[in-house]
C-alpha cells in the first residue's frame, strides 16, 4: 500500500476533515448568498462574479485548520511515533501527507468557488454573471491553487508547532490580524504588507477584478507584484516553510 493511500485513509478515518469541508462550503456559499441575495433594482445590476467570492476566504481559514489538525492530532495522540517507526523516512511520510491534504484542499476550493458563483447567479439573476474575462477565470479557478498552497502552509506550521491550539492560532491570526495591522507601523508598514504571503495570495485572486457594488476597496491591499507573480510568491512561501518543517521533523524527537 502506497504512502499516499495510507495518508488518505488516515485523513478520512476521522470526523474533523468532513466537518471542516462542510463548514468551509457552507460559509463560502452562505456568504455568497448574503452578498448577492439582498441586491435589488439598480443594485442587482452591479453584482459581479467577484462579489460571490467574499466568503471563500473564510472557507480557506477552515481548510487551513483542517490541514494543521491532520498533523497536530497525530502528535497529540502519539500516533505519529508509530507512523515514523513504520516509515523511518520522516520527510517522505510527511510529504505524502501534505500532498493528500493539499489536493483535498484544492478540490474544496474549487467547489466553494463555483458553488458560490452558482448561488450568486441564481439569486442575482438580473446581473451579468458571465465569466468572460481572464481576471474572472483566474479568480474562479485560482481559488483551488490558493486553497492548495494555503494547506501546504498550514501543514508546515502544524509540523513545526506540533500543538493544535498554537498552530491554529498562528494560522488564523497571521492572515487576519498581523498582515492587516502592518500598515500601522510608521514609514515601513505599507511596504512590509506588500511582501506578506496572504496579501499576495489575495492579490492573485482579486487583482484587476470588478468588485461591482462592493466597491474597489473590497479587493483588499495591493502588492508590488502582478497577480501571477504574486501567486508564485505565495507558493514559494508555502514550499519554503514546508522544507524547513520537513528538515526540522527529520532531526528532532517525535
Would you summarize the structure shown here?
With 254 residues, the chain is mostly helical. The chain is built from eleven helices and no strands.
What keyword list fits this structure?
single chain; 254 residues; mainly alpha; 11 helices
What does this structure look like?
- The structure is a single chain.
- With about 250 residues, this protein is an all-alpha fold.
- The protein is about 75% helix and about 0% strand.
- It contains eleven helices and no strands.
- The protein has helices spanning about 5-10, 15-35, 40-45, 55-75, 80-85, 90-125, 135-160, 165-180, 190-195, 195-205, 225-250.
- α4 runs antiparallel to α8, α7 packs parallel to α11 (about 225-250) and α10 (about 195-205) runs antiparallel to α11.
- The chain is globular, with a radius of gyration of 19 Å.
- The protein starts with a helix and ends with a helix.
- The model has no long low-confidence stretch (mean pLDDT about 90).
Number of helices: 11
Structural class: mainly alpha
Beta strands, count:
0
Radius of gyration: 19 Å
